Structure formats: structure tokens, C-alpha cells
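quick one, two chains, predict together pls
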Amino acid sequence: MIRPAAPEAAGEQPLAAYLQARRAEVEDALDRYLPVTPDCPEPLAEAMRYSLLAGGKRLRPVLTLATADAIDPDRGAALAMPAACAIEMIHTYSLVHDDLPAMDDDSLRRGRPTVHVAYGEAMAILAGDGLLTEAFRVLARWPVTDDPAVVDRKLRTVERVAAGAGAGGMVGGQVLDIQPVDAAAARRQPAAARAALRAMHERKTGALIRAAAGAGAIMAGADKATIAAVDAYAAHLGLGFQIVDDILDVEGDTAALGKTAGKDEAAGKVTYPSLVGLEQSRVLAAGAIGDARRALRAGGLKGGRLAAIADWVLARTN
Amino acid sequence: MIRPAAPEAAGEQPLAAYLQARRAEVEDALDRYLPVTPDCPEPLAEAMRYSLLAGGKRLRPVLTLATADAIDPDRGAALAMPAACAIEMIHTYSLVHDDLPAMDDDSLRRGRPTVHVAYGEAMAILAGDGLLTEAFRVLARWPVTDDPAVVDRKLRTVERVAAGAGAGGMVGGQVLDIQPVDAAAARRQPAAARAALRAMHERKTGALIRAAAGAGAIMAGADKATIAAVDAYAAHLGLGFQIVDDILDVEGDTAALGKTAGKDEAAGKVTYPSLVGLEQSRVLAAGAIGDARRALRAGGLKGGRLAAIADWVLARTN
């Protein structure tokens, strides 16, 4: 595994180089962990690879690795790499299912036709189911070890990731997102609308981002207090990420985003810009990133790349 | 937990009473393990409960418990109950997704409207995703213990269940099942058609039945040789179960089955009766159940209910 030089010394290696190196490792590992056995029918393997190996920011797996790096610079990332891949497999399955005609009915993702456009709706449902299930196989199987301490970390990671991805987390957030919104009521009661929007995002986007960081912390052997600090950091980071996402949906263009821009407004969705305007959305995003940085300092997690990643989430353009 | 009297002494308590007692325990446990936290949106909890708590044979979780009983009559079933529930959650999610309009497009299941008919297609996709994810949370979380031996069993169970349910198992089988079949080619090359049918069923139905028994064996602390014997038993049992399923689709009636009878023929699906006729299908089913019994004897697993369960699978009428 290629390790960037002195990852704990922020400033030595520019963040962009760190992200690029970690992303390249994630791409390699995803390619290795995807099922290639004769037991997996070829059309399924193809649809899963199509969706998973289409690039993307890889924010979540890089966050898992950066968290593990911050806690155990020597072994953290190696221990956490399977979890990083599992998180990205779960994120990808959620995109495949979200894009389905019965859900958001989107035809473009990561700059390419969505899975149901390329392979049909049935295969898209099954490719998503396969990615989700294989993610848990990856978590349980790798790293291969008899060390009871690492076995214990792996099992806690399974539970942490399932909680973040499940009915009380990401899937629950998606359910909140497809509930019909009464736009007139939202205008009459903006505070309630903003609380509802935040509750939806905390589950739909935030829960898996928290699980990504949490998995890195657990696999690297963090103690309870550090895991809690990482969780607070990731909760703020997730909120900031989502507000920026809403802003980019208004300001970005489809080519740079790799997904359809302007679809929130077209779908009549409540977003931060629609509730509080673009300017105030930017203030809220910057506030969330500031909170994320403060959570790191409060938890004694000053080393590593986590603060720089928070800044990058705020400044990103795609 | 209610334990049937002397479960290891086959003959003392009729199988029907054993099945009924174990089923009742499974129903209770499923009800307990489903998410009821405020984090899970109510419409999602309702759709998940609707599909999961609709009765059914509960073959798979009972098989998990019976296997655990056969290996450790004192503690096996208690250790394996969460895994039994997780397996049933995974089986139920697969039914919910299989019934979707883009898949089998079925409107009746377990005697009630399917989930997408009752709650809409988007909610059915998400309820399935939720059940699958929560299944892994249940596997990782319960039984709550610090005992490193049980932690190790739980992690191996996660891996075993994910392998059975994933791209090389159940999901892969569903992909094979939706591939178009060339009926004329099947008539010209019956041996190849039968091999393809068996390969599909080994994954679509067999893989999760094997994982159900395997999870019971692992959680009860079976050694490698015993786990292999249980796996051989369950592979034969799964084949017999599927052939009987095909026969019942021809001979059964919709009311008794709780799902639409005759749908294989209506869909032009290749089945055991369509390939080899009803009489020969019955011979094959009886042969598979005989093989399952032999695998038990070869593995020294004579006690317990596993042989009686094999006979019940052959004789079932729904």
C-alpha cells in the first residue's frame, strides 16, 4: 500500500496530494473487494462494477482513512481500508436505488447514465442489493485476522455501519425525503421547515458520513471519548457537506457535478437555499465547518488531515 | 424464552408442537428486534413490520434454531435467536424486492397485498433496504456479550450470512432468475436446462437456507466438520424445498399458498415440473430429502429435529 509521506504532519504534503493518493488506494481496493468469483453472475458483476468504479469524490472512504490515520498513523489506514470500501459500496447502492424511476427517477450520475438506464430497472435494484450485502461481507472478512482485539473492532464496525445505513439512519432519511412536502406550510412556518429539513439530512447524508468516520476510529482502536469526538466532528461535517450540496445544485453546472443540476428546484424540494437563501446558506455551511473544527480541537484530534478535509468540503465545487 | 421439553429427543414432542413453539418465539423476537426508535420514521417502521410480521412458514429461522439445538441443546437456540431473526429479515426483504413491478410484479404475498401495493413502490424498495441493513445490525448487536468466543462466532455469522445473501448467493440467483430463458433451447437440451435451473435455485433459494443452518451451527459453537455436515444437509434440503415449491405452484391453490398459484407457468418460467414432469419432480424431491438425511448421519448429527424438518419440507402443502 502506498502511504503518503508523514500524513500526520499537516502542511508537509498538500491536502490535494493526500486526497489523490488515498483515492487511488481506495479505487484499487474496491476493485479487489468486489466479487469476481464464478458464483457471481457476470451481468450482476458488471452492473455493480459500473456503478461502483465510476469515480466520484470518494469523500466517505477517504474520511474513514483520514480518521484512522489521525488515530493510528502507522496501522490505522491499513486496518480501516476494508471498512472504507464497505462504506463506499453502501453509498453507491444508495445512489443506485435513489436514482430509480420509483424514487428520484434520475438518468445521470457521476457523468454517466444511471444503472437502471444502462442495465434495466430489475438489475439496478439487484445491483444495489448486491452492493449493500457485499459491503457487510467485506466488513466481516477483511482484514483477515485471529487477533481478538481486531475481531472485536470489526464486529463493532459492522454494528456502527448498519446503524448509520439502516432504518434509523440513511434509509430512514430517504423515507423522510420522499414524503410529500407542503410548500405553503413551509413558508408559513420556516423554523419548523428548517428543523424538518435538518432532521432529514442528518439521516439521509449525515448518518453515513458519521458512520464513515466512526468506522475509521473504531478500526484504528480509538477509545470511547475519541470515538465521540470523531462523531461530533463528522456530524457537523455532514451538515456542512449537505448545505454545500444544496448550494451547488443551484449554482453548479451539470457537467462539473456529473449529475443533473437544478433538480431540487425542478422537483419542488425544500432545500437550504429555498428556505433561507443562498447567502445565508453559505453562512450556515461555514458555521457547520467551524463547528467541525472545534469538535476536533475539543477531542484533542489536532493532528492529521481532518481539519483540512473540513475546509475542502466547504470549498468544493463538485 | 419458552423451551420445548427435551428438544433433543426426537419423538417425545411431535414435530408440529416443536415447530409451533419455535415459530412463536421467532415472532416475539422479530417484534423485539425491529427498530422502534424515534430515529426510524413511522411510515418506514410500518412498512417493515407489515412485511415481516405477516406470518409465513418461518422455515429459515426455525432451521437456524433447530440446528443450534442439535449442536448445543442447552444454549444453542438462545445464542442463535438473533441470527434466526436476521435470516428471516433478509428472506423477507428479498420477497419485497422480488414482488416489485420491475421484478416479478406480484400483488399477493403471505395472503395479503404485497408491500408496493399497500405502501407504494418507493417505500417497498426502502423497506427492503431497511430490513436488509437492520438484519446485519441484529447480527452484530445481539446477543450482547464481551465473551471473545461469542464475538468471534457473531463475526463469522455476519460473513456467512452475507456470503449466502449476496452477489454469489441469493442476489446472484435472482439475477439468474430474471435472465430471459430460451424455451425452445431448453427443450432441445434438457440436461443443460436442468443444470441451469439447479444452478439458479442453488443461489436463489439454496444459498440462504444453507446460511440459515450455518448461522445456527456457528452460533452454537460447532466445529469445522460439523459446520460442513450441516452445510451439506442444508444444500440438499434447499434443493428439495425448491422442487416441492415448483410442484406446489402447479398443484396448490392460491388460498393455501398465500401467494399466486400457477404464476411460474403464466410467466413461462422453466421449473422442475415443466422440465421433467410432476411424477419425476416428486422422485427428485424425495431423493434430495434422502440425501439431506444421509448428510446428517454422515456428520453424526442424529439427534435433534433436523431429520424431521427434512421430512416436513417434503410433505408440506404450503
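Chain B has one domain: 15-315.
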